[in-house]
Amino acid sequence: MDKRRITRSATGTAITALALGALQGASAAGADGETKGGGGAPAALEPAKVCVGTQPEGRLPSWGPKGSRPDDTPLYRVLAYIDRMGTAHPSIFTGLSVDDANGAANVYRVPGKEAEKFDADICGAAEKGVTVRLYDTEVTETELKGLVDRISGDMDRWKGTFMIWTVGMNAHSVVMGVSDPEKAEPILREAYGEETMRHIKIERSEQPTLL
Fold it and tell me: Which of 72, 155, 166, 210 could form a disulfide with 177 if both were Cys (CB 3.0 to 4.6 A apart)?
């Protein structure tokens, strides 16, 4: 029997449920490593804005139990705040990732007037020493989730030509794990269209095994 997996990434409220695992996978090289990985990445590799927190340590609520590590640290308290702000701004919020090595939060959102207020709120609330990098995107988390749902319904569609083994989200795009990316890419591009494919990253994936 096929063992395929639909995953939700560390964006929005899913972060708490994943206990920070996907967040800690981010790269220390400026933005998260996914940003430099081809399809689905924001057009600009450099952040649109960067700010460094000035608020006293402990001002924000803890992500996890008080005193826990790394949940109850300035960086993760800021991440928890961004997560809540993202839920409150679904029309612009795309996702977030963490750069633990540099004490930074990478935030992805659709630019505009609402984003200006969103950015100012996050930067104004950030605790001292925490860097917040704000990246422009063209798609919201809600739209990415809708795309995940659409692809999940197509996981058997091209069986016999290639297999879709996994579908999920990173901080700013949908990630598909397929058996043969070279064969899958033109077929998926024709099926979903050029605009949609801008937000999809295709990776080679083997058949998942159950733990």
Answer: 166
- For the cut 50, the answer to whether the pLDDT of residue 32 exceeds it is no
pLDDT at 88 (0 to 100): 97
Q: Which residues are registered as beta bridge partners of 49?
A: 134
Exposed e or buried b for every residue in 55-71, given b needs 16+ CB within 10 A? beeeebeebbeeeeeeb
**ω into 208 cis (within 30 of 0):** no
pLDDT digits (tens, 9 = 90+) for 132-151: 999 999 999 999 999 999 99
Q: Is the pLDDT of residue 44 over 70?
A: no
Percent of the chain with pLDDT over 90: 69
**What is the 3 state secondary structure string of the chain?**
CCCCEECCCCCCCHHHHCCCCCHHHCCCCCCCHHHHCCCCCCCCCCCCEEEECCECCCCCCCCCCCCCCCCCCHHHHHHHHHHHHHHHCCCCEEEEEEEHHHCEEEEEECCCHHHHHHHHHHHHHCECCCEEEEEECCCCHHHHHHHHHHHHCCCCCCCCCCCEEEEEECCCCEEEEECCHHHHHHHHHHHHCHHHHCCEEEEECCCCCCC
Q: Could you tell me the pTM of the whole model? A: 0.78
